[in-house]
Amino acid sequence: MIYTDKVMDHFQNPRNVGAITDADGVGKVGNPVCGDMMEFHIKVKDNRITDVKFKTFGCGAAIAVSSIVSEMAMGKTLDEAMKITNKQVAEELGGLPKNKLHCSNLGADALHAAIENYRDKAQGVVKDESPTEVKESEECSCPYCDETLDEERGYCKGCHIELVDCPECGEPINKKADECLHCGATKAKK
Amino acid sequence: MRKAYLDHIAGTPLHPEVLDSMLPFLKENYGNPQSLHSLGQEALQAVESARERVAELINAHPSEIFFTSSGSESNNFAIKGFALAQKNRGNNIAVSAVEHQSVLHSVKYLEHMGMKSMQIPVDKFGSVNLDELKKNLTPETILVSVMLANGEVGTIQPIAEIADFCTAKGILFHTDAVAAAGNIPVDVRELGVDALSLAGNQFYGPKGTAALYVKKGKRILPFIDGGIQENGRRAGTEDVPGIVGFGRAAELAGEHMRKRADKAVPLRDLLIRSLPEKVKNVVVTGHPEKRLPFHASFCIEFVEGESMLLNLDMKGIAVSSGSACTSRTLKASHVLLAMGLDHALAQGSLVFSILEENTMEDIEYLLEVFPPIIDRLRQMSPIYPGNL
Fold this sequence. Notes:
The structure holds 2 protein chains of 2 kinds.
Chain A: H1 5-12, E1 25-31, E2 36-45, E3 48-57, H2 60-73, H3 78-82, H4 86-92, H5 101-122, E4 133-134, E5 155-156, E6 161-165, E7 172-174
Parallel strand pairs in A: 1-4
Antiparallel strand pairs in A: 1-2, 2-3, 5-6, 6-7
Helix pairs in contact in A: 1-2, 2-5, 4-5
Chain B: E1 4-5, H1 16-26, H2 38-57, E2 65-68, H3 71-85, E3 92-96, H4 101-112, E4 116-120, H5 130-135, E5 141-145, H6 159-169, E6 172-176, H7 188-191, E7 195-199, E8 210-214, H8 240-278, E9 282-284, E10 295-300, H9 305-314, E11 317-318, H10 334-338, H11 343-346, E12 349-353, H12 360-379
Parallel strand pairs in B: 1-11, 3-4, 3-5, 5-6, 6-7
Antiparallel strand pairs in B: 2-8, 7-8, 9-10, 10-12
Helix pairs in contact in B: 1-8, 2-8, 3-4, 8-12, 9-12
């Protein structure tokens, strides 16, 4: 099996699945190109998360990540919940395969989006649900670790390397690499 | 727990008689076919006998069969070997949009060497249309490659028609028949192809055994340089036990192909008919009639492939998916996208492929456990409209 027992447990028996009809904050993140989409609903009382529900379209890791994030967020203050990191999520699950690490990012992102949505609403910035944050980027993953890359594609959070576009094929490559992993083109050194 | 392996397309089990044929060459018959002593000559004889059997399966001459290590290698060999041998005649290669990655990436490799390529689009069933092919040819086109049957959606292409047209134009034509050969009748003379890839692990032979058919008189550059093996086209000591097993599997496929297909078709048809009845919002992918006898493929709306695959695995059922999450590169299947499916739907891809040993009970078991799995995953899905 590619996943830890804990991942499989949360995948098979996900906690807090569903929606909250009168949610105080809703966060949606997702990328139909990469194939994962998450939606978090939270109830907030006295700056503390009193209820969390989620819905997820995605792989085993995406579902397990959503479930563990919902558990980690429950009962926390908003500031504490904002501090939940992708790394903590992956650690809490006993690790994830490298090419699935982007799922852990999505989980924390969805929770944070829900909190931001609540705060915006509290300040009267928006009235309704937050818009879905959809990344349109065609290239979604780092060629070395499959970490999802953000729009700039200049830095991989997964393996902490600077990336540039290969002048030959346009795929992202390590700035320091002499050769493109994708097309094998050698990069002229500056 | 009940087990049902429905992943023929990923690899078939070794037929017991294939294993038996291989054992002596893993034990006492360890000679190198290139050695002049009797142990070597015995091995050579076994390799040549296997070559005859593989040739017979596709109605080729034994001298037209080159053994390789995989279907992917055969495809690399054909595309690169033909294109580089012909590069003085032109610099354009045309391949269909649904080819295996080993074809597509061989073309990419040639592009980096300065060649150009055209991709032939497919219709919603994944079929290549001859008129579309004609539109994508240039006076520079030297090679066309279209697969015989697609492993992901099961569609069988009109190869004879395409090969005929290419031959008339003086363009070389290769077909990747890895998913087809040994499972449906494949006759290189009837098809009129210049090269054809096939692999043993698709018809109860060992993994790592494959061949490329190259029509007599067609020039192809060696794929591995440095030896006299495979008539100088592919250096390296022969995998004698593998080749022997491949030969035996080809012989058995010739004998049992009809029986195997007759057994698989009712199972496939039950699956294609019943799955969309049992679960709503299911699309059958690939051609409704022109498809592999053992192949049923679907896209299940609002759910993702890997989560279905893992749930089925927990019920003892092994299947494949073309979803982004099941692939290492996290990209959805290029085959499904080329057929015009949208990304979200392509994520719900599932491929069921039937083996000789599968029974009606296996399919009934699948049909029983599948709906609750989908129901549970859909209840969890933010894009399932039932939730709205």
